[in-house]
C-alpha cells in the first residue's frame, strides 16, 4: 500500500505526479487550523473583532429588570426589619423597667429588715443595760466578796475611761509633735554649727560625741554661768569707770593746787 506522503513517479518522464485534489483535500489538516486561526494584533480586523465581541457580551449580560414580586419582597423585608427593631427596643425598655422595679422593691424590703433589726438591738441593749450582774470583788485584804454590778453604770464608766484615754492620747501626740519640732530645730542648729566649725577631719558620730563630752548640756548651769559672766562684765565696767573718774579728779586737784600756788607768789 502506498503511503500518503509517497508520490508516484512516472518512469517515462521522470516527473513527480502530484496527488489528486480529492485525496489532498481529504487528508490535509491545514484547513482546520485556518478556520480557527486567531487574527494578528497588528491588524485592524482584530480590534474590530474585539469591539464586536465586547458589544455582544454586553448585550448578552445586560441587567434584567426586577420583577414586581422581588420588589414586594424587598419592601416586606425592610418593613420586617423595622418592626423587629421596634419590638426589640420596646421589650428592652419593659425588661429594664421591670428590673428597676424589682430592685427597688428588694432594697426597700432590706431597709425595712435592717430597721427592724436595729429596733430589736436597741430593745436588747436597753434590757441588758438595765440588768444587774453578780460578780466577785476583791477587798484590800485580798478576800473576795459578792457584789451586784449595774451594767449601765459600768458601761458609762468604761465610756468615760475610753474618752479620757482618747484625750490623753491626743495630748501625747501633740506633745510628741512639739518635741519633734524642737528636735528638728536643735538638729538644724547643730548642723549649722558643724558647718561653720569643722572638726579637723573628725566627722560623724565621733565628733558629735566629743562635742557633747566637752560641752555642758545642763541648761540651768549654763544659764547661771551666763548670768555670772554678765554680772562680772558689769562690775568690771563700773570699776574701770571709777578708775577713770579718780584719775580725772586727781588731774583737776593738781590744776587747782598749781593755780593757788602761782597766785600766792603773785
Kindly describe this structure:
This protein is mainly alpha-helical and 266 residues long. It has four domains: 21-60, no CATH class; 64-130; 156-198; 222-258. The protein is built from seven helices and two strands; from the N terminus they run H-H-H-H-E-E-H-H-H. The chain has helices at 21-27, 30-35, 44-60, 68-129, 151-196, 205-214, 219-265, and strands at 132-138, 144-150. A two-stranded antiparallel sheet has the order 1-2. The longest helix has 62 residues, at 68-129. The N and C termini lie far apart (204 Å). Residues 1-26 are annotated as: Disordered.
Explain the layout of strands and helices.
Blueprint: H1 21-27, H2 30-35, H3 44-60, H4 68-129, E1 132-138, E2 144-150, H5 151-196, H6 205-214, H7 219-265
Amino acid at each position: 500500500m502506498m503511503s500518503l506522503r509517497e508520490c508516484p513517479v512516472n518512469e517515462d518522464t521522470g516527473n513527480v505526479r502530484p496527488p489528486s485534489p480529492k485525496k489532498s483535500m481529504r487528508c490535509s489538516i491545514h484547513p482546520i487550523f485556518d478556520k480557527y486561526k486567531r487574527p494578528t494584533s497588528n491588524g485592524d480586523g482584530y480590534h474590530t473583532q474585539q469591539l464586536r465581541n465586547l458589544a455582544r457580551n454586553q448585550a448578552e449580560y445586560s441587567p434584567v429588570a426586577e420583577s414586581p414580586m422581588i420588589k414586594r419582597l424587598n419592601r416586606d423585608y425592610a418593613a420586617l426589619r423595622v418592626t423587629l427593631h421596634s419590638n426589640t427596643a420596646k421589650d428592652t425598655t419593659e425588661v429594664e423597667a421591670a428590673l428597676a422595679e424589682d430592685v427597688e422593691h428588694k432594697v426597700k424590703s432590706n431597709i425595712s429588715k435592717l430597721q427592724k433589726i436595729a429596733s430589736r438591738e436597741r430593745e436588747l441593749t436597753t434590757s441588758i443595760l438595765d440588768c444587774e450582774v453578780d460578780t466577785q470583788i476583791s477587798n484590800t485584804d485580798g478576800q473576795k466578796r459578792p457584789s451586784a454590778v449595774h451594767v449601765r453604770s459600768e458601761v458609762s464608766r468604761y465610756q468615760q475611761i475610753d474618752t479620757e484615754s482618747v484625750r490623753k492620747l491626743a495630748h501625747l501626740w501633740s506633745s510628741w509633735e512639739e518635741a519633734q519640732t524642737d528636735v528638728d530645730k536643735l538638729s538644724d542648729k547643730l548642723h549649722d554649727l558643724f558647718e561653720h566649725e569643722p572638726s579637723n577631719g573628725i566627722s560623724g558620730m565621733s565628733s558629735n560625741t566629743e562635742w557633747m563630752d566637752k560641752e555642758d548640756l545642763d541648761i540651768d548651769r549654763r544659764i547661771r554661768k551666763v548670768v555670772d559672766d554678765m554680772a562680772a562684765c558689769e562690775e568690771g565696767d563700773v570699776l574701770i569707770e571709777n578708775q577713770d573718774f579718780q584719775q580725772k579728779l586727781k588731774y583737776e586737784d593738781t590744776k587747782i593746787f598749781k593755780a593757788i600756788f602761782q597766785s600766792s607768789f603773785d
